[in-house]
Amino acid sequence: MTIKEFFSLRTNKLFWLSIVAMAAISVMLFFIVFKGLDVYTRHGEAIEVPDVKGKTVKEATEIFKKNKLQCVVSDSVYISDRAAGSILDYNPPAGQKVKEGRTIYMTINTMSVPLVIVPDVADNSSYRQAQAMLIGAGFRMGPSENVTGEMDWVYGVKYQGNILRAGDKAPMGATLTLMVGDGSTTEEEYESPYNVDSLRNDTTEESWF
Questions:
Q1: pLDDT digit string, tens, across residues 22-55
Q2: pLDDT digits (tens, 9 = 90+) for 85-108
Q3: Distances (CA, A) of 200 to 94, 160, 164, 193
């Protein structure tokens, strides 16, 4: 058989029918695979993440469920002016397009106020130094209490009427009172009468809440 006869549709009809059939099958397979991937990945179908900031975990869970999304609490921090347990942030954020069933990771405001170690400022700091250290640690400052001693020298720290010792804890954001010398004596002639252990009430940290 010559080359011309081989490629001739009249003399080699079966061959060309086979070629056409293979081409048609290939096109069909490509179309089926392409459509299958499109359905599997839900191409063109996306859900917009709703805004749930400030909501409770229960409220956010219900909202995400209605939008065919899942959610989990992945972290917690403390912000004093936000409601306990409220949603502070989440990822992916509000407005982003995601696929159905996507898990949203939420950060919430901690349910309880954390306790913070009160800096050791009694009898080793001036009023300004102690104030800066306590504010830096996350506390608020109330009016100071004048006591006999060197001017502007800190002789103690109080919380809710209790004198705190070094290493004691108080709720973050708590208002503390500094016991500050009124200048009625100098450091050389002054011996502090404020024995923290004797003045400190038996009240425990747990009773402060």
A1: 878 887 887 777 676 665 555 556 899 999 999 9
A2: 999 999 999 999 999 899 999 999
A3: 50, 11, 7, 13
The answer for residues whose C-beta is within 8 angstroms of residue 116's C-beta and 6 or more apart is: 137, 138, 139, 169, 170, 171, 172
- Kindly tell me the sign of the dihedral angle through the C-alpha atoms of 178, 183, 188, 194: negative
- Residue 5 confidence (pLDDT) above 80: no
Task: Tell me the β-bridge partners of 181.
Answer: 147
Cα 198 from Cα 203, distance rounded (Å) = 13
User: Which residues contact residue 69 at a Cβ distance below 8 angstroms, ignoring those fewer than 6 apart?
Assistant: 47, 49, 98, 100, 101, 102, 103, 104
